[in-house]
Amino acid sequence: MRARLLVFPIKGRNWCFMRSVDRSNAQSQSSQSPTTFKQLWEKVSSSSHKSTAANLEICIDFAANKMNKAWAGLEKAPQGSFKNKIHSLGLKLLSRVKPSEIFLKSIPKQLNGVEVVFPSSLNPRLVRRRLRHIALKGTIVHKNYFYGSVTLLPVTSAFAVLPLPNVPFFWILFRTYSHWRALKGSEKLLELVSDSSKNQNSHEKDHVNEAAENDSKKETHPPLVMQASEELERLIGDGNDVSKCTLKEISKVFDLNTTDVLKYHQQQN
């Protein structure tokens, strides 16, 4: 499983890191995930050859799917209803999630390689260093936040005695899951970037045509392929101050989530 990552400067030291949307893979993963407790039990009990960590991951994915369905139900609630107000509150809270966390969460453990697309004017080594920096920082930051969120779960669960939805508990539960996913994504990205350092010079020589050459030769893909893009260079210009309109156009051309990309622009203000 491989992914395409886009890396480009927005303003000064503020860079955008995003993964292109992989709709086919998302659909296949959702079809394989258990949807009921019975299916979850059958999948966990029949996978005796799997480790405890693998079974835990299945349970976490199951809980995440349940949360996503509950969130979709709130989104469809009538305007002005109590559920609609909870959904509006959730949107305000989600808007505070940093775009770097969203990026790291998009890196799954099944990934065995990435193609990094960047403006042709940038040095590939600089782009790789920035990727390694965000991955290394993510392993530290999200590990600390993960343990912090876990310690708050028992505290927020006490609000269950109130005759209202326990919003604090479910928010902390979501943040715990989110930081755990970002931590795992950081570790996987750091692994892929570090593994490629030995053969980096050979990868950077023909980074423009390397993917096509590997396909024609039927060789094993390297874990990291650097792909300079003239089109991305044209869109961002000098990269000193990329506008929202430009970010929307980049999202459309390279199949990115526009909302997540625009968060990088909001972050610099």
UniProtKB/TrEMBL annotation:
Q: Where is the composition biased (Basic and acidic residues)?
A: 201-221
GO:BP terms for this protein?
Answer: potassium ion transport; proton transmembrane transport
Superkingdom as given in the UniProt entry: Eukaryota
Q: What is the lineage of its organism?
A: Eukaryota, Viridiplantae, Streptophyta, Embryophyta, Tracheophyta
Q: Which InterPro entries match?
A: Mit_KHE1
Q: Which PANTHER family match?
A: K+-H+ EXCHANGE-LIKE PROTEIN, TRANSMEMBRANE PROTEIN
A Gene Ontology term for the protein's cellular component: mitochondrial inner membrane
* Location of the region described as Disordered in the Swiss-Prot/TrEMBL record: 195-223
What is the name of the protein in this document? Answer: Uncharacterized protein
List all membrane-crossing ranges: 145-174
Q: Which Pfam families match?
A: Mit_KHE1
Key words, A-Z: Membrane, Transmembrane, Transmembrane helix
